[in-house]
Amino acid sequence: MCQTETPAQSRWGVIAIAIAAGIVAAVQVGKIPPLITLLQAELGLSLLAAGWLVSLFNLTGALFGILGGATADKLGARRVLLVGLGIMALAGLAAAFAPSDPSGVAWLLLCRVIESVAFLSCAVTVPRLIVAAVTPRQRNLAMAAWGSYMPTGMALAILGAPPIADRFGWQGVWIVAAALALLCLVAVAWVTGPKRWADAPSAETAMPWRSLGQAVLRPGPVLMGSCFALYALQFFAVASWLPTYLIEVLGYAPGRAGVATAIVVAGNALGNLLAGWLLHRGLRRWWLVVAAFVMMLLCAAGIFAPSVPEFWKLPLAFAFNLFGGLLPAALLAGTAAHAPRPAMVGTINGAIVQGANIGSLTGPPAMAIMLAGFGGWAGTYWLMAVCSSLGIGLAVWLGIVERRGGID
After folding, report:
1. Cα separation of 129 and 19, whole Å?
2. What's the CA gap between 23 and 20, in Å, rounded?
3. Does residue 201 carry a pLDDT above 80?
4. Summary count for the chain: helices (H), strands (E)
5. pLDDT confidence of residue 4
6. Which of 122, 302, 309, 379 is the most exposed place for a label (fewest CB within 10 A)?
7. pLDDT at 76
8. Mind listing the domains of the chain with CATH numbers?
9. Separation of alpha carbons 166 and 131, rounded Å
10. Quick one: how far is CA 350 from the chain centroid?
11. What whole-number distance in Å separates Cα of residue 165 and Cα of residue 175?
12. 3 state DSSP class of 321
């Protein structure tokens, strides 16, 4: 098991601003779903193109997650995070100037790809900063809080985007999100500066490229990345299309659909925090992952099923996200435990991030394909059923690997 840096006391200010950077990055993810109907009307988006507009944000992470983590370990977590936040702000501003006609679709897609580079920089660097700033005893709690960054940011975006768009158009949403990234850049630079955090993690003097494959291709990181991919595919499929379902099928107004979706997604953040507490109390990681997949499998059966009364739709979607939230916290807390040495925490996290982004990239388009192929929302359950069933098997395998390796 990897022994990581052991600060005398946790630096919760550093941890809080690092998590805030992740939340701002997640805002960039969540700003699309509540505006799909508006973008379809203004830019002539097809159903499949809308799915790709949501998921292209995860393209870079899906292709280069491991390499991104290794690069962050080499160049230094703070430096890479600051550059990423800067790119995020610039790409968001550029996207706001896309023409409001069908030609604007290509411009938006290009900006989403650039934003995905920035998102990857946040996803692979923040855990390294957290591990360096927290004591081992409180690491599970801190990493569980980090695991909630995605649902928290998405919920804020889903809530905030519709009223901003009503007044300033969808371009106003992009400008506000870019401004948040810029403010976060300044805050991170201030809080993590050498004068305020003398023992901040620095870049490695030599990158262990020869040991890169040996580190990430071990059973633990591969299984964790695979489980995260199967989870993220389902999470993003539901989170991205739930507003559309509520508007088109259940007749919700866009504002009401946004509030309902934000509450549902926020349940995932609560699940992350619950997982952190359970890990802190000694519950095994693989049990939490199994529980997440089992409950997602059960809840998904009724979310889009026409035979289930409307009254139960949102409670089932909330439970789907609440129990699903057990998984990110459990797996992200394992990055330090599975890293061969402290300097490779970012690399191992990159393997998990790559799995998460593969799932996030394929989730919304896969949902669109299921909608078209089965002629309605009910058939989308088979996507969830296959992913959860595979995930349960991989989680059990992860438990065997950790037990044999003596990994907590």
Report:
1. 10
2. 5
3. no
4. 17, 0
5. 43
6. 309
7. 83
8. 12-405 (1.20.1250.20)
9. 41
10. 13
11. 11
12. helix
Alpha helices in 304-344 (DSSP H): 310-324, 326-332, 335-338
Location of structure tokens 């939340």: 23
In angstroms, the Cα distances linking 127 to 146, 212, 226, 308 are 8, 18, 19, 40
Residues 6+ apart with CB under 8 A from 308: 302, 316
24-34 pLDDT, tens per residue?
999 998 888 78
Question: Is the per-residue pLDDT at 206 higher than 60?
Answer: no
Q: Which two tokens stand for residue 278?
A: 């359970």
pTM value? 0.81
The position carrying tokens 């790709």 is 52
Tell me what pLDDT residue 47 has.
66
Our CA dihedral for 259, 142, 89, 168, rounded to 10 degrees, sits at 20
Place of tokens 């990345």: 225
**When comparing pLDDT for 70 and 79, which is higher?**
79
Q: What pLDDT was estimated at residue 210? A: 59
Distances (CA, A) of 75 to 80, 82, 258, 343, 377: 7, 12, 39, 11, 46
Using alpha carbons, select from 297, 303, 301, 305 the residue that is nearest to residue 315.
303
The tens digit of pLDDT for each residue in 52-75 reads 777 677 777 787 787 788 777 778
